[in-house]
Amino acid sequence: MLRSDARGPAFELSDERHHAVEFPSAGVSAHRSQRSHPLSLLRRGVRAQGVKRRVLWRLLDGRAGHAAQSLGLARALERRLPLDVIDIPVTRRWRPALDGFAGRWPPGEGLPAPDLLIGAGQSAQINLLAARHAFGGRAVLLMRPVLPVGWFDLCLIPQHDHPPSRSNVIVTRGMLNPARPAAVRDPGLGLILLGGPGRHFGWDEGRVLDQLRALVARRPGRDWRLVVSRRTPARMCRAVTKIPGLRLAENGLRGDALYRLMGRAGEIHVSEDSLSMIWEALTAGAPTGLIGLRRPARPTRLTRAVDALLAEGLVAAPGTAGRPPAPPGLDEAGRCADWIRDRWLKED
To answer: How far apart are CA 329 and CA 326, in angstroms?
Structure first.
């Protein structure tokens, strides 16, 4: 099993580094890097200025969390080699996938053949295999599959999902994501990220508000900004505006705008119901603390994963008065991209 040291966020993503390219024959809206060449050059094996551009198909099931994982890997690969990224929506319908095993996968018709296919989520699994069968390329799944692991060329599986020991498995610390540290960090900026009610934790509004008041009071000199998610109750959003020294971030802050803010923050505190946001904060290079919620009677996969972060000392426990611990310097997307480039995508 290959180890790399380096869920979905509650926020929608925006692909600010990509722009749409229409392929009418395929019936999908794709995206390619702004550094890409004209569409006439977007063919597998074409060399521009002596450099071979690779083609990556990014299969999207409509879930923001899964899109964040694949976006993190796609951008890491873009930073390492000339790459055209094409986004292809997929669904749970079986017919397109079954067609793929017969040598025809309709969502990919008319598109440049892929060198690499990536995706996360249940819908992506069967479609990755079908697309690979019809058009070739390497299939990379960013999760623990329900299908046999050996059916994929590579699986990138977070450590908390207990990956099997296989030659085609890379164990990652947390989920891949697009967050990155900023070149210049603002030590006076404090960021708070809130999730909302879910099945793993009990949402206690009073308890959350008490922690927010205490946090702001302990470090009154910080510019504290609060970012809520789609799961945050409306009543909670109204209540936080009454806390002195805490301001609600502008409405609609998400995607790249949020990741840039995370990369600049001097410290970040995240409600412990969102494991993805915790890992994004750590990947952004910010000292990270937790906002505690009510735990279930029995531990769940998510609560165990949060407890493991606390045991490793990667995050500060709820109510900790001091500054959160120094971040570990994670770049799991970059490490996985290095592995893929070095083994599959180097120049011939």
So the answer is: 9
CATH number (3.20.20, 3.40.50, 3.30.450, 2.30.29) of 2-177+333-345 reads 3.40.50
2-177+333-345 with 186-312: one CATH topology? Answer: yes
Q: 43 in helix, strand or coil?
A: coil
Class of CATH domain 186-312: alpha beta
Domain ranges of the chain: 2-177+333-345, 186-312
Residue 12: both structure tokens together: 């929608």
> Per residue in 123-159, pLDDT tens?
899 999 999 999 999 999 999 999 999 999 999 999 9
pTM, whole model, 2 decimals?
0.85
φ/ψ of 165, rounded to 5, equals -85, 100
The answer to whether the CB of 112 falls within 8 A of the CB of 137 is no
3-class SS at 255? helix
Q: What angle, rounded to 10 degrees, do the helices at 64-78 and 332-340 form?
A: 60
Position 92 confidence tier, pLDDT thresholds 50, 70, 90: confident
